[in-house]
Write a structure and sequence with these properties.
Helix 3 runs parallel beside helix 4. 35% of the residues are buried. By secondary structure, the protein is α+β, with helices and mostly antiparallel strands. The structure holds zinc ion (ZN).
Length: 247
């Protein structure tokens, strides 16, 4: 299991609490000299104002919380996935889309999370924009640091834009996730995953043509391997050659 470094968060106040810390600072100032000025306040971390359980993960950047609100993680632009919505399949699978979706599901599904809503309150799709905090960790930054999406640079990030941009830079430098290999999005080399047989196939192969399209989804070859899927024995040779050729 891969271990990811966590984005660290500064406690809002020390163990003393704000009042005691202020009194201590004042005492130190009096003690030190008249020229002592209070230090500028450290940037505040997102402070959750709402706590809610995640009941559904829609994709790598969107969850639904109890009560039915669709929440978009501020700053995170995750690769898309093809999904059923209102009885129709919409969107496209992009490299790392499935992996981002599964990762966010593992992290947040059925967990009670803290939300700090953003400004603007909603995006063009009507999703509620929020910072999501779990166990003191800002999940928005974690996803970017692990390479499960790009930083979208939206204004809702506000004072935390720099934190999110740094998290993305870290992923780019390490070639993680969507930045794998080249430090930019790699061209997709898709495999096709059919009915749940745990295998992925060459999309052009005869066996892949047997899957009804509504029962299959596309993943990049690397992503499929990361998800623990095995190549179909019939398609193995072709997929392996394509994978090598593209590297
Ligand atoms: Zn096959």
């Amino acid at each position: 299991m891969k271990s990811f470094s966590r984005v660290s968060f500064r406690p809002r106040s020390g163990p003393l609490g704000p009042a005691a810390a202020g009194a201590l600072r004042l005492a130190l100032c009096v003690f030190a000299a008249a020229s002592c000025r209070p230090a500028s306040p450290p940037p505040t971390d997102p402070v959750p104002s709402v706590f809610a359980r995640v009941i559904l993960v829609v994709d790598g950047e969107t969850v639904v919380v109890e009560g039915g609100e669709r929440v978009k993680l501020i700053g995170v632009d995750s690769p898309g996935i093809r999904r059923l919505a209102d009885g129709e399949y919409r969107g496209e699978d992009e490299p790392w889309g499935r992996d981002s979706f599964r990762h966010l599901s593992r992290l947040l599904l059925h967990r009670k999370v803290g939300l700090q809503y953003g400004d603007p309150a909603r995006d063009a799709e009507g999703r509620r924009l929020a910072f999501v905090v779990l166990d003191g960790e800002l999940i928005n930054a974690r996803l970017l640091e692990e390479g499960y999406g790009r930083y979208d640079g939206g204004s809702a990030a506000g004072a935390f834009g720099a934190t999110l941009a740094r998290a993305e830079s870290s992923a780019r430098e390490r070639g993680r996730g969507v930045w794998e290999g080249t430090g930019r999005f790699t061209p997709p080399r898709y495999g096709l995953v059919g009915p749940p047989d745990g295998k992925f196939h060459d999309p052009k192969a005869a066996c892949a043509a047997l899957f009804p399209s509504e029962d299959s989804f596309r993943v990049s070859v690397r992503e499929a391997r990361r998800m623990g899927l095995k190549p179909c024995p019939i398609c193995l040779k072709r997929l392996a050659l394509e994978d090598l050729a593209a590297d």
